[in-house]
Specification:
alpha+beta; Rossmann fold; 3-stranded antiparallel beta sheet; two-stranded parallel sheet; 41% helix; globular
């Protein structure tokens, strides 16, 4: 995963089957970053039918590549696992460069947030995940949200989902 590759479908579907049957998923649940491929979407569709769960909506966040690269290559994370505060060196840097405002630990760039790793993840996305937009559009469950302006994304999603 650090290299930007996806986990196996068998592993992820086993996790999904177990997780979707948990008590806290009875009323509702949100999946973030799954499914990532057409075979996973098809397997999820079958699993949901088997579990008698209805898929209400799929939200596609539309963001240009240059915005994704800028956001992720400028993101920094507190290395303290009990804190994990997130900063952006352009828009919301720590008060002292490289030092977490919350706990004083070092703020670092994650290995998977370098331009090389992000570019590889975007290549994988374009090859395997982008076709899901058409898949879910044909299913009638796709909601598209312009996510270029991060401040309005949550409001736009809530509005589209009518929550």
């Amino acid at each position: 995963m650090k290299a930007g590759d996806l986990v196996t479908d068998t592993l992820i579907m086993d996790i999904m089957k177990e997780r979707l049957q948990a008590d806290d998923c009875i009323a509702s649940f949100l999946l973030d970053g799954f499914p990532r491929t057409i075979p996973q979407a098809q397997a999820l569709k079958t699993l949901l039918v088997d579990l008698e769960i209805t898929l209400d909506a799929v939200v596609s966040l539309d963001v240009p590549k240059e915005v994704i690269l800028d956001r992720l290559t400028t993101r920094r994370t507190c290395e303290n696992p009990d804190c994990n505060a997130i900063y952006n060196i352009k828009s919301s840097p720590p008060k002292q460069e490289g030092i977490c405002d919350k706990c004083g630990s070092k703020v670092v760039q994650r290995d998977d947030e370098t331009e090389e790793a992000i570019s590889k993840r975007l290549d994988v996305y374009n090859a395997k995940t982008a076709p899901l937009v058409e898949f879910y559009d044909q299913e009638g469950s796709l909601l598209r949200v312009n996510a270029t302006s991060s401040e309005v994304v949550v409001a736009a999603i809530r509005n589209k989902l009518e929550i």
